[in-house]
Amino acid sequence: MAEAATSTEKSPVVNIKKYANRRLYNTATSSYVTLEDLANMVRQNIEFTVTDAKTNDDITRSVLTQIIVEQEGKGQSLLPIKFLRQVIAFYGDSLGGVLPRYLEHSMESFSQNEEQMRSMMQNAFKGLFPMQRMEEMGKQNLALFENAMKMFNPFAAQTKTDTGGGTPAAAPGSENLDSLKSQLDAMQAKLDKLSKDRT
User: Fold this and answer.
1) For 8, 51, 123, 139, which has the most beta carbons within 10 A of its beta carbon?
2) DSSP letter string, 110-137
3) pLDDT digits (tens, 9 = 90+) for 55-108
4) Residue 2: how many CB atoms within 10 A of its CB?
5) Alpha-carbon torsion (119, 123, 124, 129), positive or negative
6) pTM value?
7) Contact 79, 111 (CB under 8 A)
8) What is the pLDDT of residue 102?
């Protein structure tokens, strides 16, 4: 298994077929699998796509969402309720298209921090456990997400300052959207710099 991971050849993407009876069939191993099996494949960095056996439509996104729901129901909840509410609120919103790009970039940055955290925990057995540094990393990651959510709702402050006596606040237009994208690019640049400084 280690040889496969270090191989320079990229492993082919596994095709999983989902049938009307909701059973999942791994075409690579010619066997039926469960959502837990697919979760283990994700942990092993095995790429796969899920297609509807009847229509051949790609339903990978919905199946991955089902895996998250199943994992959340097992007691280890990784997604805070406030975060879930904020994500749901962006469905159908004009700014919702920018959110996936930010979340993907944030998770990549968090994954890099995760490697450093694991290294620190290994050093704990040698009496070199820098708890303060780990707490700082956690606070920085949390701040990134909080700032992102504030950035995606830049008109909240504008609504609060409108007392109703003057002219109503202007509806968000293309200028505000351009400004938001500029802020997003600036934040991504800071994330990149932060990641490089830590490597």
Assistant:
1) 51
2) HHHHHHHHHHHHHHGGGT---HHHHHHH
3) 999 999 999 999 999 988 887 788 889 988 988 888 887 777 788 888 888 888
4) 6
5) negative
6) 0.54
7) no
8) 83
Mapping DSSP onto H, E and C, the string for 70-107 reads HHHCCCCCCCCHHHHHHHHHCCCCCCCCCHHHHHHHHH
Q: What does the alpha-carbon distance between residue 66 and residue 70 come to, in Å, rounded to a whole number?
A: 6
- Residues β-bridged to residue 172: none
Residue 157's pLDDT band, with cuts at 50, 70 and 90, is very low
**Which run of H or of E encompasses 188?**
helix 174-198
- 91: tokens are 């469905």
HSE-up (13 A, CA, CB side) for residue 130 = 10
Nearest to 38 by CA among 62, 4, 57, 55: 62
Find all residues with CB under 8 Å of 60, minimum gap 6, and list them. Answer: 48, 49, 50
**pLDDT tens sequence across 120-136:** 666 665 554 455 565 66
